[in-house]
Amino acid sequence: MTPPSQPRERLRVAIQKSGRLGDPARELLASCGLTWRESRDRLFLYGESLPVDVLLVRDDDIPALIADGVCDLGIVGRNVLVEHGLERAATGRDGRLTEWRRLGWGACRLDVAIPDDQEWTGPEQLAGLRIATSYPRTLARWLEEQGVDAQPVLLNGSVEIAPRLGQADVVADLVSSGGTLRANQLEPVTTILESEAVVAGPDHALDDGRQEIADLLLRRLDGAVRLKEARLLMLRTGRSELGAVLALMPAGHEPTVMQVDGREEVSVQALVHGSVSWSRLEELKRAGAHNLMVLPVEGMLA
Ligand SMILES: Nc1ncnc2c1ncn2[C@@H]1O[C@H](COP(=O)(O)OP(=O)(O)OP(=O)(O)O)[C@@H](O)[C@H]1O
Ligand SMILES: O=P(O)(O)OC[C@H]1O[C@H](OP(=O)(O)OP(=O)(O)O)[C@H](O)[C@@H]1O
Ligand SMILES: [Mg+2]
């Protein structure tokens, strides 16, 4: 691997090796037209179609790899990025990172959870308590904002079990379905951070021509994200109901309305953002639409 101090003309992106964000990150890069050759140890993907290489690492290491200039960008949860930034600032190291893109998947929350047989009255209730967490800096910042003095207890895994083991009184941990908390007789009571997967990068432009490569990759990534969210909604309706139907169309591009040969009927098609709910389809039907169809979009060129 090239030491960070040497000029590099290829972009290097860090993603999670395995775990929740690894596969979607790899798929996203593949959908940007990136093809690669895998190193024997499977820790490095050498980009063939673009000068973009991918490093496969533990997600906790991604922010430091960028901050230290070993990698240029990374795909990581905001929770990891924020914790790293606070840690770095508290220990007086530079290398600030920012979110270059939000990706809209990998959504979870960093929540405070308390034993489910306790009443929640507000953050002041946490004063003097031990709070088990893998995110001590993020928790400490939140406690400070709330004006509450409590004691973070750092655990790198199995945080939810800490109250039962007597290591802590309550927890601050990642939640999505809430199943893990429930299984441990805990209940989420307040949110410290809303997280999702992001493209993280330095808070300045890249050197040695790598910004141009990054711009190209991000343009493709924006297109890939838009495409993934796009749906084609098609329906038919009578001329007299057209106004009511159009008023109910989900957000998206301007619909195309076409006359159906020999009938008092039109065919409407529109590119819409995100999936179309059953209730929206039912509303459209009630307004006079029929033959409703929602299709995924394979490719798009304006
Ligand atoms: N229950 C969840 N639902 C949705 N997203 C989650 C959930 N738990 C974690 N995440 C998000 O996915 C990221 C990776 O989670 P994962 O559990 O794979 O990490 P890890 O065990 O720390 O992996 P690694 O071995 O790379 O250190 C988290 O940092 C968070 O952003
Ligand atoms: O609200 P839920 O849907 O139950 O998800 C929450 C759990 O998911 C994550 O752990 P994960 O399952 O990734 O295991 P880990 O702690 O080994 O990373 C997180 O640390 C919680 O324990
Ligand atoms: Mg990790």
Automatic annotation (TrEMBL):
<keyword id="KW-0028">Amino-acid biosynthesis</keyword>
<keyword id="KW-0963">Cytoplasm</keyword>
<dbReference type="Pfam" id="PF01634">
    <property type="entry name" value="HisG"/>
</dbReference>
<comment type="similarity">
    <text>Belongs to the ATP phosphoribosyltransferase family. Long subfamily.</text>
</comment>
<dbReference type="InterPro" id="IPR015867">
    <property type="entry name" value="N-reg_PII/ATP_PRibTrfase_C"/>
</dbReference>
<keyword id="KW-0460">Magnesium</keyword>
<dbReference type="GO" id="GO:0005524">
    <property type="term" value="F:ATP binding"/>
</dbReference>
<dbReference type="InterPro" id="IPR001348">
    <property type="entry name" value="ATP_PRibTrfase_HisG"/>
</dbReference>
<keyword id="KW-0547">Nucleotide-binding</keyword>
<keyword id="KW-0328">Glycosyltransferase</keyword>
<keyword id="KW-0368">Histidine biosynthesis</keyword>
<keyword id="KW-0479">Metal-binding</keyword>
<dbReference type="GO" id="GO:0005737">
    <property type="term" value="C:cytoplasm"/>
</dbReference>
<protein>
    <recommendedName>
        <fullName>ATP phosphoribosyltransferase</fullName>
        <ecNumber>2.4.2.17</ecNumber>
    </recommendedName>
</protein>
<keyword id="KW-0808">Transferase</keyword>
<keyword id="KW-0067">ATP-binding</keyword>
<dbReference type="InterPro" id="IPR013115">
    <property type="entry name" value="HisG_C"/>
</dbReference>
<comment type="function">
    <text>Catalyzes the condensation of ATP and 5-phosphoribose 1-diphosphate to form N'-(5'-phosphoribosyl)-ATP (PR-ATP). Has a crucial role in the pathway because the rate of histidine biosynthesis seems to be controlled primarily by regulation of HisG enzymatic activity.</text>
</comment>
<dbReference type="Pfam" id="PF08029">
    <property type="entry name" value="HisG_C"/>
</dbReference>
<comment type="pathway">
    <text>Amino-acid biosynthesis; L-histidine biosynthesis; L-histidine from 5-phospho-alpha-D-ribose 1-diphosphate: step 1/9.</text>
</comment>
<feature type="domain" description="Histidine biosynthesis HisG C-terminal">
    <location>
        <begin position="230"/>
        <end position="298"/>
    </location>
</feature>
<feature type="domain" description="ATP phosphoribosyltransferase catalytic">
    <location>
        <begin position="58"/>
        <end position="218"/>
    </location>
</feature>
<dbReference type="InterPro" id="IPR020621">
    <property type="entry name" value="ATP-PRT_HisG_long"/>
</dbReference>
<dbReference type="InterPro" id="IPR011322">
    <property type="entry name" value="N-reg_PII-like_a/b"/>
</dbReference>
<dbReference type="GO" id="GO:0003879">
    <property type="term" value="F:ATP phosphoribosyltransferase activity"/>
</dbReference>
<dbReference type="InterPro" id="IPR018198">
    <property type="entry name" value="ATP_PRibTrfase_CS"/>
</dbReference>
<dbReference type="InterPro" id="IPR013820">
    <property type="entry name" value="ATP_PRibTrfase_cat"/>
</dbReference>
<dbReference type="GO" id="GO:0000287">
    <property type="term" value="F:magnesium ion binding"/>
</dbReference>
<dbReference type="GO" id="GO:0000105">
    <property type="term" value="P:L-histidine biosynthetic process"/>
</dbReference>
